[in-house]
Design goal:
Distance between the termini: 54 Å
Largest sheet: 4 strands, antiparallel
Shape: elongated
CATH architecture of the largest domain: 2-Layer Sandwich
Number of strands: 7
Number of domains: 2
Strand order of the largest sheet: 4-7-5-6
Structural class: alpha/beta
Number of helices: 4
Strand content: 15-25%
Order of helices and strands: EHEHEHEEEEH
Helix content: 25-40%
CATH class of the largest domain: Alpha Beta
């Protein structure tokens, strides 16, 4: 796949056409800076065309989706709610693999955000200081989770 993202429509078109014809690229994607050129790029064989209008619409849709998801997480789903924990270096779970941690019943570790990337947790995932953990849980076990991640003693 070749992605052409220069600020010049002609350059992006030539890059995609060369990639497809000379280098047998299976997919091409081009940024189209002038909205009127989108149809032309498609007609000339660029597989996917991204223009300012589609980018703005995508950003708006992403924000609407995030707002709906955030509202759902805050409100909770029936008897469940999504909570997050940021691990400090003093947390007893830091340095442990998830499979070695005894989580309370009625909770599920959904994702771990480390620096700028999300990790789908599995048993071999080792937790590190600074990890932001999202847990789907029943409110009755929230205190047990807090004690697990931030013990008072």
């Amino acid at each position: 796949m070749v992605i052409a993202l220069t600020g010049d429509d002609q350059d992006n078109l030539v890059i995609c056409q060369l990639a497809e014809r000379q280098f047998k690229a299976k997919r091409t994607l081009a940024l189209v800076n002038t909205p009127g050129n989108e149809k032309l790029f498609q007609w000339l064989g660029v597989n996917q065309v991204v223009g300012p209008a589609s980018l703005i619409l995508g950003l708006i849709q992403q924000q609407l989706d995030m707002d709906a998801t955030t509202a759902l997480w805050r409100r909770g789903i029936k008897d469940l709610k999504m909570i997050s924990f940021k691990l400090s270096s003093r947390s007893p779970v830091v340095g442990k693999k998830i499979k070695d941690i005894t989580f309370p019943n009625q909770c599920l570790l959904v994702t771990v955000v480390r620096e700028d990337r999300a990790i789908v947790p599995c048993g071999s995932t080792t937790l590190l200081a600074g990890d932001l953990m999202f847990v789907l849980t029943h409110p009755q076990v929230q205190g047990e989770l807090e004690e697990l991640f931030y013990p008072q003693s």
